[in-house]
Prior knowledge:
The chain has 194 residues and is α/β, with parallel strands linked by helices.
Amino acid sequence: MSMTENEIKDIFIKTKAIMEGHFLLTSGLHSPLYVEKFNVLQHPKYTEILCKEIAEHFKDANIETVVGPMTGGILLAHETGKALGTRAIFTERVNGKMTFRRGFKLNEGERVLVVEDIVTTGGSVKEVIDVVRKAGGVPVAVGMLVDRSGGKVSFGDVPYHALLHLNVETYKPDECPLCKKNVPMTKRGSTGKK
């Protein structure tokens, strides 16, 4: 069942999820390329296919629960959990801090797969890993749709697997060549994270 990275990329291209322009990322960095996850996630058949690919990679890891951050991570956790036959829950921000709400809890030692859509710096995933650990869970691994860090992202002792790898330039706002050329910005990817 395993798909190639080119087959995965074709899904993102077909759904117009890979976009070019001048974008503000959640991390605060600027980039000439943006992956609009909801262009692909709005199609349940593609979401299911992609999440089955993530699940396939972790099928022998004895995952008990899949956790994703709100918003895109909810869909990914649900579909990946369905494919693995596990529970699926999510974290959300309360006053800028990632947390479990809605009565979600983990048992001590519960084996967790953290899922995320697009990763640039990995900040949100690291926050979810911290929430899982504080709740008594064991973050076994991270599964993601796209690693756009160019392989630079790390989650310490937690291994990860990405379906698609993109090496995309990112710039600090004061060093952005697109800003220096007065290229208008399309504000996408900003979640209001503090």
